[in-house]
Every structure is written in structure tokens, then in C-alpha cells.
Task: structure prediction
Amino acid sequence: MGHRVIEQVVCLEGSLGERLSDIYAACFSGAPWFEEWTREAASQELQSLLAKGADIVAVECDGEIASIGVGVSVEVAGDAAQLIALGIDRGSYYIAEIATDPAYQRRGLCTEICMILEERARAAGATSLSARTRFDNIGAISVFERLTMQKIAGYSAETGGRTSLRVVFQKRF
Ligand SMILES: CC(C)(COP(=O)(O)OP(=O)(O)OC[C@H]1O[C@@H](n2cnc3c(N)ncnc32)[C@H](O)[C@@H]1OP(=O)(O)O)[C@@H](O)C(=O)NCCC(=O)NCCS
Result:
């Protein structure tokens, strides 16, 4: 069986929305985030991004949704003011979420999705591609570096009651 890219998820109702929410909840619950995400909470988070005009790209492997990436104008991202103060361009396209089902990680799925998001950013006339992650998120950092994004800032932030360093990435077009 194959590999299929869903270029734009337009509706989070039904089994597709449930599967995407489950991947999100599995990837962002527990260590190192120390948060607990239910399917419902994950679904609301994705719905709110969709309502802000986000691009949601997914990849299906062997008939199962395996990975998701969300890109949005940085100006409508959750911490827009902070991200812009840290050096992200106002006209940037921000990779807000990336998550690959643990069973499908390290197959290049996230890299593929981020490359599609970069194309989307360029087509939309964005001035840069940007992202941020924890300083110790080897997977995310590897993907951003593979896209030749550069580290432009660091700061500390709290998630799940614990403070850790975050790294901000940007690639200007
Ligand atoms: C970050 C994440 C989305 C990467 O997804 P992925 O589909 O596995 O990424 P890719 O397969 O495209 O990885 C590309 C490269 O990154 C590196 N990489 C990815 N995950 C890695 C890991 N856990 N450890 C070390 N290197 C890793 C590898 O170099 C990999 O290439 P290789 O397998 O050819 O060596 C995934 O690890 C994930 O869902 N993590 C939990 C959620 C999360 O932290 N999201 C980011 C929040 S900002």
C-alpha cells in the first residue's frame, strides 16, 4: 500500500478529525510537555487553528493517517506578539504544529509535510518560514535544520508546570 498526501484538511468532523486529534494528543501528552491532551481538547485546538485560516496537511501511510503539520500566518499564532518580538518577521508563515504518530516516526513524513508547508508559504507571499520548539526536541530541530532554517533566538517558557528552553527558527525567502 502506499503513501498519500492530504494537501488540505478542510473539515475536522468524522474519522479523519478523530485520527488527527488522536495523533496530536498522543504526541503532546506526557513527557517532555507534562500536559495531558484528550481527543476533544486536541480537536478544539486544531479547529481553532483552522478557523484562523491555517493550512493543515496530513500524510496517510498504508491507509492510516500517520502525520500532520499545521502552518499559519505568524500574526494569528497563539503567541504572535512574543514570536515577533523574538525576531520572527511579521509576514512570516509559522509552522504551528507538527506531529507524527510514534509508529510512523523517522520515515521522513514530517520533513515531507514541512516542505509542503514551505511551498505554501512561498505561494502565499510570506517573507519567511518560521517555527519554534524545545531546545532538546531532536526530531523537530533536525527537521527544521533539514529545511535550512536557522536558529534566531532562544527563551524559556513553561509547559505543564515546568520551565525549559525554546529555540526559534526562521528561514527568510
Ligand atoms: C518532531 C516529529 C514531528 C518528527 O516527525 P518524523 O515524521 O519522525 O520526522 P522525519 O522522519 O521527517 O525526521 C527527519 C529527521 O529528523 C531526525 N529525527 C526525527 N526524529 C528523531 C528522533 N526522535 N531522534 C533523533 N533524530 C530524529 C532524523 O535525522 C530524521 O531523519 P532520519 O530518520 O533519516 O535520520 C516527531 O518526532 C513527533 O511527532 N514528535 C512529538 C511531537 C513534537 O515534539 N512536535 C514538535 C513540537 S514543536
